[in-house]
Design brief:
Helices cover 68% and strands 0% of the residues. The chain is mainly α and 257 residues long. Helix 1 packs across helix 6, helix 4 runs antiparallel to helix 5 and helix 5 runs antiparallel to helix 7. The longest helix is centred in the middle third of the chain and has 39 residues. The radius of gyration is 22 Å and the shape is globular.
């Protein structure tokens, strides 16, 4: 559908508002974001800017949704680049996540940094829905690997019963015996709707993997790895290989970027 001139101008103005807002947040911190300051830089009146966003929180919400959507699209493209290869998918998604975070530090800090003073999450759940889209990419990888994890766990338990006469300890990747009541209802609903056969233990494993990937990335983005290591990418690559083994997958050994 072709946009009218007026519609094109509105789309371009919204894009410019968001770009300036992200730059202001990177330079001054999210707490210093001001619609009036953005309007001044754009040569607009504050009233004109309010015709696009009623409040500062509306603009922040739009930015958060955009950031999560951008991240989800990048991660999904990485996953699709390695079809029928869960290990390759995990490595590709992990590398993409790190590259995205380093290359788009202001956006990363917006969604994963400190809470923005005074900002209230909208009741319509737009931010949560966008965040779940990004998280869903990793869930797809774990869902693909889960049957192999279950088979390995069953074999280990059967062997232990024969050799020791008692049950084996649960395999690390599957330990926990979670139920869906352990998760927030919106997250549980997303996981169960998207993957009907997905057990709660697998959902917990997905979050554990995300936590390990995110931990190293956050340390690097905020400069906390700089005093300790010369090559954060190597450290991150080793973590990806460990996570492949956690999923009972054979890592490719491909270097990270």
């Amino acid at each position: 559908m072709k946009l009218s001139r007026r519609e094109r101008l509105r789309v371009e103005t919204v894009r410019d508002i968001k770009e300036i807002a992200l730059r202001h947040m990177a330079e001054q911190g999210a707490a210093g974001l001001s619609l009036r300051a953005i309007a001044r830089e754009m040569g607009m009146t504050a009233g004109a800017l309010y015709s696009y966003y009623d409040t500062r929180d509306d603009l922040i919400t739009a930015l958060i949704v955009d950031v999560y959507d951008s991240l989800a699209q990048a991660l999904e493209a990485a996953r699709r680049s390695r079809p029928d290869d869960p290990a390759g998918q995990l490595e590709a998604v992990g590398v993409t996540y790190r590259e995205w975070a380093i290359g788009r530090s202001p956006e990363f800090q917006l969604v994963y940094g400190d809470p923005i003073p005074g900002y209230k999450v909208r009741d319509d759940g737009a931010e949560l829905a966008a965040e779940h889209r990004a998280c869903g990419v990793l869930i797809r990888i774990v869902a693909a690997a889960w049957p192999g994890i279950g088979a390995t766990r069953a074999a280990a338990e059967a062997t232990a019963e024969v050799t020791t006469g008692g049950p084996a300890r649960p395999a690390p990747a599957a330990a926990g015996s979670y139920t869906w009541s352990d998760f927030r209802p919106d997250f549980a609903a997303m996981a169960r709707t998207s993957f009907p056969d997905f057990p709660p233990d697998a959902a917990a494993l997905s979050l554990r993997i995300w936590g390990r990937l995110h931990g190293l990335v956050a340390l690097e983005v905020y400069g906390h790895l700089r005093p300790q290591v010369n090559d954060p990418a190597r450290l991150y690559g080793d973590e990806l290989r460990d996570l492949c083994e956690l999923l009972n997958l054979t890592p490719s050994g491909a270097p990270t970027a």
